[in-house]
Specification:
Layout (H helix, E strand, L loop, with lengths): L1 E3 L2 E5 L4 H12 L4 E2 L8 H11 L5 H12 L1 H8 L4 E5 L7 H8 L3 E6 L2 H14 L4 E6 L17 E4 L9 H15 L4 E7 L4 H7 L6 H16 L9 E8 L4 E8 L3 E5 L2 E5 L4 E8 L3 H10 L4 E6 L5 E7 L1
The chain binds S-adenosylmethionine.
The site of S-adenosylmethionine has 20 residues, from helix 2 and strand 5.
Amino acid sequence: MASSPSLLLYDNPPEQEDSEIQVLGGLLAVEKSISPKFFYDEEGSKLFTEITRLPEYYLTRTELALLRENTDEIGELVGKSSLLIEYGSGNSEKIRILLERIRPKIYVPIDISKNYLTKAADALNDEYPWLEVRAICLDYTREFELPFVVEDRPIAFFPGSSIGNFSRDGALQFLKRVKHLVGDGGGLLVGVDLKKDINVLNAAYNDANGVTEKFNLNILCHLNREFSGDFNLSGFSHLAEYNAQEGCIQMFLKSKSDQLVNLAGHEIYFDKGETIHTENSHKYSLAEFHEMADAAGFAQLRCWRDARNWFAVFYLGG
Ligand SMILES: C[S@@+](CC[C@H](N)C(=O)[O-])C[C@H]1O[C@@H](n2cnc3c(N)ncnc32)[C@H](O)[C@@H]1O
């Protein structure tokens, strides 16, 4: 659907039936889970933006500062690519730092949250008249082809440490898919949250204002709407803690009582204290991420990190 000559929207969201099978599979399993991609209906996207402004959530502030402080060096490495693709673009805030320096002809924001993506793409289209915006609504955890012919080596951008939501093997497979998409001349700029003091990590996912709690619970609201469910949000509580063995923050919803929930024509039983696993957020050491990038086939690696060593932005090329 074209809404202006320089703004195109491609709509390729996951099929409702596939999503239903995935959600039921997770909730009817012995250890219940919901994929984190279901956080992002419009309300979830708004709540995430709120999270990024919380004092405890150092990730966004630190990554923004790294991008601002190193724009010139990043621009030099990335070169003058005419095609910039962002995975999980959200409000497209971070790409604004790089757009003037890289000056791509085409910017491709990819996100699963369609209304939010459309609004962000519209705003960019108004702000940068010289830029062609081709927004794509799809699920980047699956293999996909770009719905147009690529004439230049693309540069991919994956900020926010969203790579941490994949399992370690899932992250490697994702990097391999990106490497395939950008080819030998292209590259990937990716934000990675680093291992650090457990108290800092636990505070970032348990903010004092309870915004992360609202964000976590909103996933149930999203499922109620999409799959005719009757989850009672006040029947669950938010739980987020660092699992040192796995090297990741794990987020759960914990049932406050024995209860029965209906979803997509199925009955789901919860014991008091039973949990639904909603998110993993893996943290990496520089060496671990370096090794993974290498295994994915990226020969060139450059890294920028803050003075506290809390967050890193990597450029992977070659
Ligand atoms: C943690 S937020 C990061 C947003 C922004 N890139 C940033 O750095 O602040 C994750 C973003 O990825 C999108 N997203 C999550 N899972 C996705 C998936 N499987 N496919 C496509 N987009 C996804 C969400 O809608 C959201 O905008």
